[in-house]
Every structure is written in C-alpha cells, then in structure tokens.
Write a sequence for this structure.
DNA sequence: TCTGGGGTCCTAGGACCC
DNA sequence: TCTGGGGTCCTAGGACCC
C-alpha cells in the first residue's frame, strides 16, 4: 500500500486557520528566489504547481495566501499518521513527511480480496482524518511498491485505487513513460528521441536497447518496471547517508570572506544535527551554485569521522579556495557523508580528532600529504597535522594528539615529491 | 531577479593495490 | 615496442524524488 497525504502542508495550514479554507494556499519560499513546496487544490486551479517559482505563482494567483511553512506542525501531523500505519503493519517505509509504503502482508491482514481491501483502506482513511483533524489521504494498493504508488496517484485527492493482481500491465501500457519512478525530464527526452512515449512503447524495447541508451542500472530498472516487475521490499528503517545544510541568498554573494562566514555557520548547523543523532562522517563537501546556476561541488575525505563544527568549517573553507566565484554565488552548502553511527572521543574539542595515537608518536621526516596554499590542515598517510606556517617553499606542520595536545613540529619542502600537492594545480608557494 | 532544501543513487575516471 | 585484470576508494557531476 502507498499512502499520500493530499496537498499536505497546505492542508495543515487550512486545518489550523479556518479563514484559509476553500482558498488558494501556497506554502514554500516566500522570498525573491523561493519556490512552491505545496499548494492547495484551490491554487492548482490557477495553474500553480509544486517546484514553480514563487514569483510565477504570484503572477498566476496573486490573491493566494503565501506561507513560509510551519514544519513543526507538519512533523506532528506526520508522526500521527505514521503511528496509525505502524498499527497496521510493522513494515512502514516513510518516503517523506506525507508519504509512506506499508507492507500489508507483513501486518495482520489476511483477506486480500478487493472487497476486504476496500473496507480496510476506507477505514484507514477515516482513522487518518479523525486523528489529524480532517486531513485527507489518497491510497493505492497493489502487488508491488510500484503499482501501489501508481494507484495512489490515480484518484487524488481523497481517493482509493486498488489494482487487482493480473491487471497491472493493462493499466500501465497506455500511460506516459514518466509514471515510472526514476523517469524525469532528462530520461523523458532521451526516450522521446528513441520513439518511446508510453509504457507500451517502453515494453517493446529490448533490455539491450535500454541499457545501451540509459546505462546498466537505469536501463534494467525501466525494462522491468515497464513489465510491472518489481520485487523491492518495504524497508522500515533506513539509515541516513548524509547530512547537509544549504542556502540560496537573495542576492549573489561576491565576497569570499562572507562566503567563508556562511560556510562556517552552516558547518555548525551540520555538526549540531550530526551530534543530535550520534553520527559523524569522514567526507566533507561543499556545494556552490554560481550566478548562472551552474553547480560545482568539492569534497575531501578525512582518515576518521568527525562531528566537530570547527573541523567541518575548516575543511569547508579550505574547499572553497578551490572554487572560482567570479560572477557571484547564489547558493552555498555544506554536507557530511560517509557517516558512521559512532563518534570519536572528543577530548580536546575542535582539535581533538587526531589520529589514533599509535600512528602519531613517530612523525616521519618524509610523508605523502595533501596540502595547498591557504589550507591549514594537512592529511598525510601517517596522520593529521595543522599547518604552522608556509613560506619560502617550506611547509611547517604541527602534529597534535588527543593525549598530549600540541605535538612535534616538522618542516617539509613544498616541492618535495613526497609532499604531493593537492589538486587541481600545483600550488604556487610564496 | 527565472529556477528551494533535503536527500538518494548512478556513472566515470583516476589512483592504487595485488 | 608494448604494456592485464580484477578490485576498492575517492572525487565530481548529474538525474531524480518529495
């Protein structure tokens, strides 16, 4: 079963503010560069859609209520609904605040006749409405995740569709290929060039044709889904793989110092969230969207995971040095991936995430390292060090350990073949 | 003043290792 | 003159989803 709450954020707003009922409500970014997250059906009548720029939504529906969103309220409503679903079956896979798959066979349900499923689903929709103060949900039920999801979309809002076993292909064949999850604008265009518009067209193509055009993974997935072949299980608990914070600014940023300040603040927010969930990660990334909407990312992987705001900020600022922000930057972001569900002992705050001490005492006079001008941390094959100073072709590195604090200081020739310059270009050391 | 923010998954190339 | 075949890890970018 797939359950989808209708126009979720907008519906919560209309529930909580009676004056908004029956009126167009648009929730999303309200600034000059905002987009629509969700809108009520009254707003959809004016052509407003999710992901549309708020600017355009205002032009189409100037009298709508434009709201920034109260995510606490949405989270609360979501928790209530997910709780009801978990009453039905232990196998509930939330996809977002307003959507979930439920494995009905893993729950108590034994009668899968259409009559019994209809009664069950209508009862569930009534329970959701009652427990949430009137929110409506659309439900789809089928023999796979794919079919359930397709079904829940067919009679939105406030609908219920059950696709009986054996009828999958006849339902899918006339539909546009983009009903298949994973087929977005780019794939639609490639398929169109192949002469594929509908699921039936897709089904007529061989596995070889599709994998050649779309790649192994995507091609095979489409070949299977076009035949309604889908055995993906409902997975109740999925672990997070990354944590990130990003922001688009009303006006493009042009000052590097300001960008560094933004990254530093975002690193703090990322670290807070990591710490709240007991997570830490090895790979620190930044995302930079330039004035022309081109997006670049840079990342760097540490020898061991961190959840330290200072460490993440230091790395993020260092990564920015490798990006040319000429023309202005509209978005900046910081992320941490390669998550581990444990945190290293943090004896010295920001600088305590040293290598295991056993690797440090014997600091070699030569080592492989990554360093570039402006970077104040060096990762080596023997451990981590802080750049103490750099000049006259020499890099001085101070090593620290959690046990002893500041450790030995060593100098390395910057042109030493074993002190490998980090990309992209050999650094000019002045 | 076109085009959010939080994610996931995939691909491709290079370094490196045996 | 000719230079394998697996595998892993890392980085960058892109497509996609809600």
């Amino acid at each position: 079963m797939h359950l989808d709450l209708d126009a979720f954020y907008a519906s919560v707003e209309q529930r909580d503010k009676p004056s908004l009922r029956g009126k167009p409500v648009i929730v999303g970014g309200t600034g000059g560069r905002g987009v629509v997250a969700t809108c009520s059906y009254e707003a959809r009548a004016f052509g407003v859609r999710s992901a549309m720029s708020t600017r355009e939504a205002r032009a189409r529906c100037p009298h709508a209520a434009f709201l920034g969103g109260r995510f606490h309220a949405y989270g609360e409503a979501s928790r209530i609904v997910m709780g009801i679903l978990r009453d039905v079956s232990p196998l509930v896979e939330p996809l977002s605040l307003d959507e979930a798959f439920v494995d009905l066979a893993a729950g108590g349900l034994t009668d899968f006749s259409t009559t019994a499923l209809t009664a069950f689903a209508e009862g569930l929709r009534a329970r959701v409405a009652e427990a949430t103060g009137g929110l409506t949900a659309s439900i789809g039920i089928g023999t796979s995740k794919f079919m359930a999801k397709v079904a829940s979309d067919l009679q939105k809002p406030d609908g219920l569709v059950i696709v009986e076993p054996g009828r999958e292909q006849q339902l899918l064949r006339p539909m546009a290929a983009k009903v298949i999850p994973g087929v977005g604008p780019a794939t639609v265009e490639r398929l169109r060039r192949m002469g594929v518009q509908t699921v039936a067209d897709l089904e007529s193509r061989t596995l070889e044709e599709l994998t050649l055009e779309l790649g192994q993974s995507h091609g095979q997935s489409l070949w299977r889904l076009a035949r309604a072949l889908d055995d993906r299980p409902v997975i109740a608990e999925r672990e997070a793989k990354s944590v990130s914070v990003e922001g688009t600014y009303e006006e493009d940023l042009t000052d590097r110092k300001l960008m560094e300040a933004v990254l530093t603040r975002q690193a703090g927010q990322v670290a807070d969230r990591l710490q709240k969930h007991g997570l830490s990660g090895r790979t620190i990334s930044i995302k930079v969207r330039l004035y022309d909407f081109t997006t670049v990312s840079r990342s760097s992987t540490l020898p061991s995971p961190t959840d330290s705001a200072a460490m993440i900020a230091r790395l993020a600022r260092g990564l920015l040095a490798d990006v040319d922000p000429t023309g202005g930057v509209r978005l900046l972001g910081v992320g941490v991936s390669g998550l581990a569900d444990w945190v290293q002992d943090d004896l010295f705050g920001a600088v305590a995430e040293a290598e295991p001490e056993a690797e440090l005492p014997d600091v070699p006079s030569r080592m492989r390292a990554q360093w570039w001008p402006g970077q104040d941390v060096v990762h080596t094959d023997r451990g981590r060090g802080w750049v103490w100073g750099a000049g006259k072709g020499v890099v001085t590195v101070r090593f620290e350990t959690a046990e002893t604090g500041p450790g030995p200081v060593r100098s390395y020739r910057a042109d030493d073949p074993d002190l490998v310059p980090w990309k992209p270009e050999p650094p000019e050391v002045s």
User: Anything to note?
Assistant: Residues 256-276 of chain A form the longest helix (21 residues). The first strand of chain A starts at residue 2 and ends at 5. DSSP finds 13 helices and 17 strands in chain A. The radius of gyration of chain A is 27 Å.
